[in-house]
Amino acid sequence: MARLLLYYAHPGHKYSHVNKAMADAARRVDGIDFVDLYGAYPRHNIDIDREQERLLAHDVVLFQCPMFWYSTPSLIKEWQDLVLEHGFAYGAGGDKLAGKTMMLALTAAGPADAYTADGYQRFPFRTFLTPLQQTARLCKMRFAPPYVLFSSLRAPSSGEAALHVEGYVKLLTAIRDDRYDFARVDAHDVVSHQTLPIPIEA
To answer: Which of 68, 85, 176, 178 is most buried, with most CB under 10 Å away?
Structure first.
């Protein structure tokens, strides 16, 4: 079994629909470690030693959050700035995360076609994740294609939110059970509940 660490970050958790449902479902998945970053660090006073111990104890690190201004909520950036220290995550002797996997579970208010050269966001969705992908590379980690829900504000009424949450549980369970095909998913820019590379169990 893979050791999965899930960091959830949503400063407006009580107002959320999709992310709240995803987090509630994730908490019920046995065998993974769930950390609510805003719940744990409401004043951003991050315990660096504790977080580094968490990272060392896991194989896959997954950040779940909404896209905020083409990036993550600020607490994730603060966490990165403090926890991914020189000599620990990168630089001389900084190979403690080598071989581990970083993955994202993201929601975006805009539709998928907004993230094209002709769409109103003007760039592919993965372009906005370049700093996170480079962070993983510097830390010698695999950066797996993210699990994404587009048009998230409309998803509850369209029924897509429920399917996305159901897919999220399948994703987390498959990673935990070493059934998630990371090699196959690397060919994708993003994955959804419809494109999860999970082999059928024997």
So the answer is: 176
Residue with tokens 């190979």: 95
Angle between helices 48-56 and 74-83 (to 10 degrees): 80
Least confident stretch, 77-81, 104-108, 152-156: 152-156
Please state which CATH number belongs to domain 4-185. Answer: 3.40.50.360
Q: How far is it, in rounded angstroms, from Cα 4 to Cα 22?
A: 16
Q: Where are the domains of the chain?
A: 4-185
- Please name the amino acid found at residue 13: H
